[in-house]
Amino acid sequence: MDTIAIFFINEERSADNLSQSRKNIRNRSNFLNICDKEFVQHFRLTKDAFKYVLTEIKDKLKKRSRTSAVSAELKFAATLRFLAEGSYQLGAGNDLNIGIAQSTMSGVLKEVLDCLEEQICPKWITMEMTNEEKMEAKQHFYENTHFPGVIGCVDGTHIRIITPCKDQQHMYFNRKGFSSLNAMIVCDHKMRIRYIDARYPGASHDALVWNTSELRRMMQQNYENGERNSWILGDAGYPLEPFLMTPYRAAELNSLESKYNIAHAKARNIVERTIGVLKNRFRCLLSARQLHYSPTKATKIVNVCAALHNICLFYNAPCIGQLENQESHGTHLSLDMPTSSDNNNVAIRIRDGIRNSMFIEH
Fold it and tell me: Residue 160: helix, strand or coil by DSSP?
């Protein structure tokens, strides 16, 4: 037998051994038996949260047609490993608790992401708030920052992706020098993500994402229907509107406007912390990792991570490690700021009224 034939026989045996090893790992795997701390380190969710989500999606995943097929539990676990570590599919699949080949992992990831976005995201990401929830948010922000009427805070963050095809590169190349999605995130006082829109290319300005969002239309409708005492806080990259309060520009030191800006920044800081926790919890979103997928699939990953983040909060899952995401999230340049909304006399009067109530009337 010649050397080439021996090489291919050995390669075939090696592949068979690897496949059998993965099968053995899957058969022996019982990751729910590991300790709670290690479980959260691996999958980010608590065991109760894992069981809840699995129950919600299990019937929607493909049924096992043979004993060697990947179970729903392993599919979900493998997806969580990928989201948690931001590693390549091969690394997530070869986890000692998973045991899935890269080709299989690719199909599993697509299947589970589709199911999570359809079944979990609508239930766990919603800007619809009851009157009680709004009052609770307003009370929290007022007691901690003296800023009245706040029900949420908005910011944009860049999600790094692999450079798209040549005819789309210019749209995704952001001001920081890499290709990304510009994801708009709104959180409440408990760091729950109430709204997310990650469809837009990285070159898009925060104001564009806001102006074309369903959230803006909803806030506008609520305002026109008589809700005049609820606001979202945004930084200078967003337009001033009757329902979106932004800082004063070029405020003089120690002026009422400057004091307003300080209180505004203190209140709005929670959305920056929320983005940091989200990216640290699901590290596939960190700029150091980069999502090697099309913009459409990357958007789906961002949406799913946001919903799982909210589930982690609900089940009191600790965030592993220190916050690594110290990047500047939004588009804070002043050269290309939208100015048309600043001419909105109603919004200006509302902001001035808030300023006066905070620093004159008291």
Answer: strand
